[in-house]
Every structure is written in C-alpha cells, then in structure tokens.
Amino acid sequence: MDELKHGHGYDVATSSGLLGMKMQGSMAISQANIEVSRLKSVRQYNYFRQKKKTSIPKMQG
C-alpha cells in the first residue's frame, strides 16, 4: 500500500470530496496494474527468448 500511495501519486489530493478521492484512487490503482502487467510481459518475453536460444539443437551435417 505504501508503494501505491507514494509511488503513484496517491499521497497528495488534487481535488476535494469523496468523488475526487475515488477518482484519484481508481487512477492510482489502474497505473499500478499497468506497471505490474508490463513487468510481467517483459519477464515472460525474456524468459522465452532465453529458453529459445538454449533449447534449439544445432543440426550436424
């Protein structure tokens, strides 16, 4: 939760009221989810790229 509050701008309110707080929370959570999914896709890409390099046997002959 601390990363969400400080890493994505949830610590300082840009508008007042319950609606503004809900909107700011939704945007911060969405941004965090986008970053997590981007990190997962990069890790998967690197994993399969590395696996592809090492698992293809060279043909002789």
How would you describe what is shown here?
The protein has 61 residues and is mostly helical. The protein has a domain at 1-32. Helices cover 74% and strands 0% of the residues. The mean pLDDT is 74.
Q: Could you provide a short overview of the structure?
A:
The chain has two helices and no strands. The chain has 61 residues and is mainly alpha-helical.
Strand residue content: under 5%
Which consecutive residue ranges, at least 5 long each, have pLDDT under 50?
none
User: So how many helices?
Assistant: 2
Mean pLDDT: 74
Binned, the helix content reads: over 70%
- Number of DSSP E strands: 0
Structural class: mainly alpha
Tell me about the largest β-sheet. none
The helix/strand order is HH
Q: How far from one another are the termini?
A: 59 Å
Shape: rod-shaped
Rg of Cα set: 21 Å
Question: Any descriptors?
Answer:
61 residues; single chain; 74% helix; mainly alpha; rod-shaped
Secondary-structure map:
Elements: H1 2-7, H2 17-55
